[in-house]
Amino acid sequence: MLTDAVMFAFGGSHLELGEHMLGKEYFPNNNLQMKGDLQRALVNYYDFMVGYQNLLRDGGTFNTESVDISCTNGRMDVAAWPPQTGKVASVGKLVDNKQVIHLINLSVANSFDWRDLNGNQPEPTMIEDAGMKFRTDRTVKRIWVASPDLNGGVPQEISFNQNAVSTSFKMPGLKYWGMIVIEY
């Protein structure tokens, strides 16, 4: 799931589904078997990628280095991409009048390898009600979040408070991947 979260957040995709999980470069190969919950989760991720393709894959400019987002209540430790051990990675992208911020939960990851050959990557712990602060001097009109891990990917509008230099809001939940959209 983390591999898909990273690829999709950066606007990419990959071939992994067929009759079986495609885990080797030569097909067919059925050395990896997916359980039902993983199959359903992957369908949710691909549905999410298609549903939000205008934000994920349709232009925009990555601006991770200029995105200043932090957690104010200790629920998560956020650091800009590239990933760091024990942290939630943030990836920023400006698309028209929207600042998109992807949060990828690597807080318990034991490896940043793209393949989990032994199937021992721990499942991230759900992070709930994280107080977030995003530094911006632009007037924010609306904030919403969406995740393939929550609510079937349906966007959820978030209330926020803004002052001259930052905007504060609560991130309702983060499992593997969440997308915050700040509209100006």
Automatic annotation (TrEMBL):
The answer to whether UniProt assigns keyword Signal to this entry is yes
**Origin organism lineage:** Bacteria, Pseudomonadati, Bacteroidota, Bacteroidia, Marinilabiliales
Q: Mind listing the UniProt keywords for this protein, alphabetically?
A: Signal
Instruction: Please report the name of this protein according to its UniProt entry.
Output: Dextranase
Quote the InterPro entries the UniProt record gives: Glyco_hydro_66, Glyco_hydro_b
Q: Which Pfam families match?
A: Glyco_hydro_66
